[in-house]
Design a protein that fits this description.
The complex is a heterodimer of chains A (296) and B (321).
Chain A (H helix, E strand, L loop, with lengths): L11 H37 L3 H4 L14 H7 L4 H37 L7 H11 L2 H14 L6 H25 L3 H9 L4 H12 L1 H17 L2 H6 L8 H10 L5 H21 L1 H12 L3
Helix pairs in contact in A: 1-13, 3-4, 4-7, 4-10, 4-12, 5-7, 7-10, 8-9, 10-14, 12-13
Chain B lengths: L9 H10 L3 H7 L1 H28 L2 E2 L10 E2 L3 H8 L1 H33 L5 H13 L2 H11 L6 H8 L16 H25 L4 H9 L4 H29 L3 H6 L11 H11 L3 H35 L1
Antiparallel strand pairs in B: 1-2
Helix pairs in contact in B: 3-14, 4-14, 5-9, 5-11, 6-9, 9-11, 10-11, 11-14, 13-14
The chains are: A mainly alpha (296), B mainly alpha (321).
Chain lengths: 296, 321
């Protein structure tokens, strides 16, 4: 097309006027969405620095008159009962999520590599596994899995959660990693093979380092998924000492009349790890999100 | 659907394909390849395939409330007739439809607006995208508590704001009112997921050829015409996928209604999933709950069919380019 060579000066004034209108609409949309997104979170934070007395007022204190970090101190103090529980739940969440993520990568990497490179019958299974995972709700799997876990003696253990999260994360992880392996030229491996490397060595030394972005993307995805999971944890665990955060905070704030500032600070602390992880690795997360849904 | 990308054993593959050996022989010939996928296949068989089979089986049985499945009794289609003729089923189905369609519609519209507004380069664009994505990233449990507090009947900030601005005289009791509860939950859901649509559509916008837009501009097309005749047709594929994924996610959502209202008041905010959960784990009626789940499978299968179609159509278009 010759559009680029056209002198644009003559047409500019006409176009510019309408572009401006369009731009203002864009700004208005963004402002609205920004407020819609941020105000609830701002109110969560503002509430978390109020005393319970200050929070339960009508009309509400729009801005805390006596801000206090007491709620946070209480939650993070290993000496108090609440603090001990909260830190334990935090640790449980962290440990389950981390183990899920690591095991997920260990299982998904070879499988993704095979799906990308080999042509064995049944490769399309992966596509349907991804579909099934995307399609069917956790609750539907819950009943048989509950029986299965009971049969395997895994009820009330973190093993039941890790096994479940791992499996439900796998199809997507494999899918994402396969996309990355598909983009690594096969010639690189062939060159290494000619130089005497075994298939495994070629995989380990050539393919693995090149697929690091893919591994990071799938890792944060499965970590965040496991950290936020609620339904299975709620059903498989009944002992207080094993709760993960999403189930745990619910437990100990409804025992008494709800302590809203305390609940808001717990919610805030619970969100910090995933939000930080996400903001730092946003690029990878967004890539995983879009590639998980759009087939290449 | 799968085009050979030229694996290391591609030449051998061509020879084998020509002779068209039996499936079993091909499986045996490729047996080493399966070792790589074996761990993944094993866990998926146990945790995904078995539950699907078992749910279908249970849906034909009347199950004891102590959950000793050895004592289950064959019930034929009883569970299904019970589900389909109950009045709760109709009420919950209508609520599920409203929930799914309204959430999908608003999330898509807001996501599209955000994607279009963020498509232009400006300072802080990446940060803005990140901030808008936070609700999508945090746990639905956290979101539910935050909104439950915003909606609180006595001290909720939304009710107080409505009174201060003179919209209502008394704070509205959003979650305890049959008329407002579902809409209130839909707002939370849209808040949580619109940025998913945004990210998908932003990825789609990048595929719109810049030259076409510029050509249209030179030809005197207005911004609206450029959007409608150039941008939007290119977004069709990704929009379809996004809408389907949103629909599936909304159909399957559980946490927001479960944590915020538990389906109440008087079942007014139950959707299928929360109702199934209540039947299974509240009332121990696993047979009935399984029948529900199977019906849900079927609905999902229909949606899945369109999903595959939308995805593969994109492939054909790409292959034709």
């Amino acid at each position: 097309m010759s559009t680029i060579e056209l002198p644009s000066g003559a047409k500019r004034p006409v176009v510019k006027k309408s572009v401006d209108w369009w731009r203002w609409a864009g700004r208005a949309t963004l402002t609205f969405l920004f407020l819609f997104t941020m105000l609830p979170m701002a109110w969560m934070i503002l509430t978390s620095v109020k005393s319970q007395f200050a929070a339960m007022q009508y009309p509400p204190q729009w801005w805390p008159t006596q801000p206090t970090l007491n709620n946070y101190f209480k939650l993070l103090d290993p000496g108090s009962k609440i603090g001990r529980d909260f830190l334990l739940y935090f640790w449980n969440s962290f440990y389950v999520s981390l183990l899920t993520t690591i095991l997920g990568v260990v299982v998904a990497v070879p499988a993704a590599y095979a799906f990308s490179r080999f042509r064995f019958p049944g490769r399309n299974f992966l596509f349907f596994a991804v579909l099934v995972r995307n399609m069917f709700p956790a609750v539907v799997f819950l009943m048989p899995l509950f029986l299965l876990m009971r049969w395997m003696g895994l009820i009330n253990t973190h093993g039941s959660l890790i096994l479940t999260y791992l499996t439900f994360g796998l199809p997507l992880s494999i899918w994402l990693l396969k996309g990355f392996y598909d983009n690594i030229p096969i010639q690189l491996e062939q060159a290494a093979r000619i130089d005497g490397a075994t298939r495994f060595q070629a995989f380990l030394l050539i393919v693995m380092p090149l697929s690091t972005p893919g591994i990071i993307a799938t890792s944060i995805f499965s970590f965040i998924g496991a950290w936020n999971e609620y339904v299975y944890a709620y059903t498989f665990l009944s002992r207080d000492s094993q709760m993960t955060l999403p189930v745990g905070i619910q437990r100990f704030f409804t025992e008494f009349a709800t302590d809203w500032p305390g609940l808001m600070s717990a919610t805030f602390l619970m969100s910090v790890p995933v939000v930080v992880l996400f903001l730092v690795l946003q690029k990878y997360f967004v890539r995983a999100l879009t590639e998980g849904a759009v087939k290449h | 659907m799968t085009i050979a990308t030229g694996g290391a054993n591609a030449p051998a593959e061509v020879g084998r394909l020509r002779k068209r050996p039996s499936l079993i022989r091909r499986i045996i010939a490729n047996r080493n390849d399966y070792l790589y996928v074996l761990p993944a296949l094993l866990v998926m068989l146990v945790v995904i395939a078995f539950p699907i089979y078992y749910t279908i089986e249970l849906s034909f049985y009347s199950t004891p409330s102590n959950l000793q499945m050895r004592d289950k009794v064959w019930a034929g289609l009883d569970n299904y007739t019970r589900v389909l003729t109950s009045s709760v089923f109709h009420e919950v189905t209508i609520q599920t439809l409203i929930w799914t369609l309204a959430s999908t519609f608003f999330a898509f519209i807001l996501g599209l607006g955000a994607a279009l507004a963020l498509h232009r380069e400006f300072i802080g664009r990446g940060l803005m995208r990140g901030l808008l994505l936070i609700p999508y990233v945090i746990s639905a449990v956290a979101a539910s508590y935050v909104w439950k507090w915003l909606y609180h009947s006595d001290f909720g900030v939304i009710g107080a704001l409505a009174v201060q601005l003179g919209i209502t005289d008394e704070p509205i009791n959003f979650l305890d009112n049959r008329r407002t509860v579902l809409a209130s939950l839909i707002v939370v859901n849209v808040w949580k997921e619109f940025s998913f649509a945004m990210v998908m559509l932003m990825a789609g916008l990048q595929t719109v050829p810049e030259q076409l837009l510029r050509a249209a501009q030179v030809d005197g097309a207005s911004p609206w015409q450029r959007f409608w005749h150039v941008t939007f047709p290119h977004l069709k594929g990704v929009s379809m996928v996004t809408v389907l994924l949103l629909m599936v996610a909304n159909f399957n959502s559980f946490i927001i209604p479960f944590v915020m209202t538990g389906g109440g008041p008087a079942d007014a905010s139950h959707i299928w999933i929360t109702h199934i959960y209540q039947l299974a784990f509240g009332r121990q009626q696993w047979g009935v709950a399984s029948a529900y789940a199977v019906i849900l499978f079927i609905v999902m299968m229909v949606l899945g069919y369109f999903y595959v179609k939308a995805l593969t159509r994109g492939d054909d278009a790409r292959a034709g380019e």
